[in-house]
Amino acid sequence: ACCQAHAMLASGASASQLMPYCSAAPGSSEQPFGGPAPAPATHPTVAECAGSAGTTATATTTSAASSSGRVAPASPAFLAAAAARGLVRATHHLSLAATSAALPCPASASAFTPASASSRAAPLPGGVRHKGTRTNLDEAAQATGLSKPAVSADLLARVKDAGLVRTAGLIGGKWTEVASDKSTFDVVNPATGAVIATLPRMRADETRAAIAAAHSVLPQWRATPARERAAVLRRWHDLILAHKADIAALMTAECGKPTAEALAEIAGGAASVDWFAGEAVRIAGDVLEPPSRDRRMVVLKQPVGVVGAITPWNFPMSMITRKVAPALAAGCTVVLKPAELTPLTAIALAELAERAGLPDGVLNLVLGDAAAIGHELVHSDTVRKIGFTGSTAVGKMLAAGAGAGVKRISLELGGNAPVLVFEDADLELAARGIVASALRNAGQTCICANRVFVHTAVYDRLAEAVVGLVRKLKVGDGAEAGVNVGPLITAAALEKVTGHVNDAVAKGGKLLAGGGRPEAAALAGGAATAGGHFFAPTVIGEATIDMRCFKEETFGPLIPLFRFGSDGEAVLLANTTEYGLAAYFYTRDLGRAWRVAEELEFGMIGLNEVAITSEVAPFGGLKQSGLGREQSKYGIAEFMDVKYVCMGLNYSSPSPSSSPSGSGL
Ligand SMILES: NC(=O)c1ccc[n+]([C@@H]2O[C@H](COP(=O)([O-])OP(=O)(O)OC[C@H]3O[C@@H](n4cnc5c(N)ncnc54)[C@H](O)[C@@H]3O)[C@@H](O)[C@H]2O)c1
Ligand SMILES: O=CCCC(=O)O
Questions:
Q1: H or E stretch at 451
Q2: Is the CB of 614 under 6 A from ligand 2?
């Protein structure tokens, strides 16, 4: 069937014309691949299957920077000016929180424990803030009968520094525990189904207050010398690494990814912060060669202003640091809205930014109602730039709103990444790469391998190698040692993957591994995982282009294997998607490597490599995968305005001696 597709391709057929011809690929009589990859001593992480940590982020070391308290703010001049203007501390408190009274905190016997102390409590050695006081939360809760912000005892037991586990947003330097309408939302551990935190559900009021706070301190922050901004970012980086075990525990609890993957994300996220600290001091304009003698021309690079950052749940840290670090480095101030599914990592990051000396109001954190917060950010005239990572559907909506206000926007959206395995590929390397990429974060990564196209001559050997690796993986609660594949984030995600697998099987796909929910007894984590959203890593053979997994981003642990017969067919199949984020291919042929890399319509290409993410390289997509780039030298440009200044020199001079120009030039 694919040979027919090849013939059609040669005669100029389009991808849609190919559809009927690729739906019934024949079996192959190829010899099996030469045995499965050598088994690691213990259960390998998915990334280890690919022989990489899943990111090429520069390894960073924990610095000697103390985590034992609040580091002196970046610029004394800034703080003095801010204090004089009443900007430092509590200008933008919300009314409820502003009236907070410090009350004794009785020991709680319940499973839920108030997490946050009153705002600005003095830090204790080791970074722990005093817990002996709290706001008027209990009174508010009693008065209204509403549940109050809280964290579970289980979550608190997972961290050393309980000061990282606040139950509040951050607005103008004030930790705000009560939403203006007193409503709350729950954070759920996807491995167990247990509620691990209850937080204030903020909406338009809080967003407006956060935007106002960010706007108030913008003049001071953008005037803070770049070296001082960089110093704050470096302290933030150091504190993140010093607290990486705690951040990983929070991340795994709220998004489910295995601890090893959480630590890899933290290393990558910290590397971004370090990178942009370096970029801050290298911001430079241009001096242009003027076309005439009587003028001079320069280009200034200036911060765009207040930035709204909206981030997804699948990378609760690195999607934040990729936006916030370049924005702060450029001299912008930020209102951050993390995913409501994973706000705890964001709260810990904001707490550490505060300890690093980031002045009040420069980074604000608004938690809760996505639509209300997003609407305020996109339609505010004060916010000059939106940085968004998430689904293409929400991204398009935000882009329409931003367009109406002629607001800058960068979008990191969905993907549908192809992997092409050519007949000359190193098949063992390819199999490891496919498994590592497709199952990273249980398949919930925007650059996950979603569609695997294999030359028919090596199809069976590659399939056998992939299945061999998948069968070794351990599924369960990501907090358990040795787990490679954690839960899906929600029941809806589980339903989508189930739908893709059922659809593929109904259309003739061969189930080579997995196919459904694993037996509870097989899951690492025991009985507690009964409420978790687990799906067994699944391999489908003889996949065809009429299947949902060809057209849609699965965002789950599914590896569909398609056949192709020629290079042209492979590239055409890969490009047959509205997405254009990442693509991977395996070959040893240098000429093919160049041709295919140039012809793939994707923003990022991995050649014989799937661990392509790095703070030094531009991250972003083509087509409906987004606009703009994060990371690298391109990432900071998204937060800078270009201003051209033309200086005419033909003005009349007050005295001949002070004449700078004129006809003498
Ligand atoms: N290209 C990339 O770099 C990249 C990285 C990670 C994830 N993603 C994509 O993100 C998607 C998964 O993330 P998700 O499910 O969290 O996406 P999502 O679009 O549902 O949510 C992303 C963020 O947008 C917020 N949001 C939701 N509705 C909103 C609205 N009406 N207005 C404003 N904000 C709103 C959410 O609360 C969250 O903070 C996948 O498609 C994945 O490919 C892309
Ligand atoms: O999901 C998107 C981020 C993936 C990555 O940083 O490698």
A1: strand 449-455
A2: no
What's the ipTM?
Answer: 0.97
Is 221 a pocket residue for ligand 2 (Cβ < 6 Å)? no
Q: How many A from CA of 354 to the centre of ligand 1?
A: 26
Give the pLDDT confidence of 446-487 residue by residue, as tens digits. Answer: 999 999 999 999 999 999 999 999 999 999 999 999 999 999
What is the position in ligand 2's atom list of the atom closest to the CA of 412? 2
Nearest to 114 by CA among 123, 124, 103: 103
* CA–CA distance, 218 with 222 (Å, rounded to integer): 6
C-alpha 565 – ligand 2 centre gap (Å):
31
- In terms of Cα–Cα distance, which of 69, 383, 344 is closest to 186? 344
Model confidence over 534-559: pLDDT tens digits? Answer: 999 999 999 999 999 999 999 999 99
Tell how far the Cα of 279 is from the centroid of ligand 2, in angstroms: 21
The span from the CA of 89 to the CA of 82, in Å, is 9
Chain Cα centroid distance, residue 358: 22
Query: What is the token pair recorded at 20?
Result: 């009927």
pLDDT, average across residues 598-619: 98
To the query of whether residue 412 is one of the catalytic residues in this protein, the response is: yes
Cβ neighbours of residue 590 closer than 8 Å, sequence gap 6 or more: none
Quote the pLDDT of residue 416.
97
Residue 662, pLDDT above cutoff 80:
no
**Residue in 412, 464, 553, 569 annotated catalytic:** 412
- The total number of residues written for the chain in this structure: 665
Ligand 1 atom closest to residue 338's alpha carbon, by position in its atom list: 39
Q: How far is the CA of 253 from the centre of ligand 1 (A)?
A: 19
As given in the structure block, the two tokens for residue 466 are 């992939």
Whole-number pLDDT of residue 48: 55
> Does the beta carbon of 445 lie inside 6 Å of ligand 2?
yes
Q: How far is the C-alpha of 20 from the C-alpha of 10, rounded, in Å?
A: 16
How many other C-beta atoms are found inside a 10 Å radius of the C-beta of residue 423?
16
Q: How confident is the model at residue 526 (pLDDT cuts 50, 70, 90)?
A: confident
Nearest to 66 by CA among 273, 363, 356, 359: 356
Beta-carbon contacts of 314 under 8 Å, excluding residues fewer than 6 positions away, are: 255, 441, 444, 445, 446, 489
pLDDT for the residue numbered 658: 54
pLDDT of residue 20: 33
Buried b (16+ CB within 10 A) or exposed e, 616-631: eebbbbebbbbbbbbb
Q: Are 31 and 461 within 8 A, CB to CB?
A: yes
Instruction: Pull the structure tokens for residue 215.
Output: 């706007």
> What is the spatial distance between Cα 311 and Cα 306, in angstroms, rounded to a whole number?
16
What is the Cα–Cα distance from 28 to 26, expressed in whole angstroms? 6
Provide the 10 A C-beta neighbour count for residue 267. Answer: 20
Q: How many CB atoms lie within 10 A of CB 90?
A: 16
Q: pTM for this structure?
A: 0.82
Is 659 buried (19+), middle (13-18) or exposed (0-12) by CB count in 10 A?
middle
Residue in 378, 376, 313 with CA at minimum distance from that of residue 339: 313
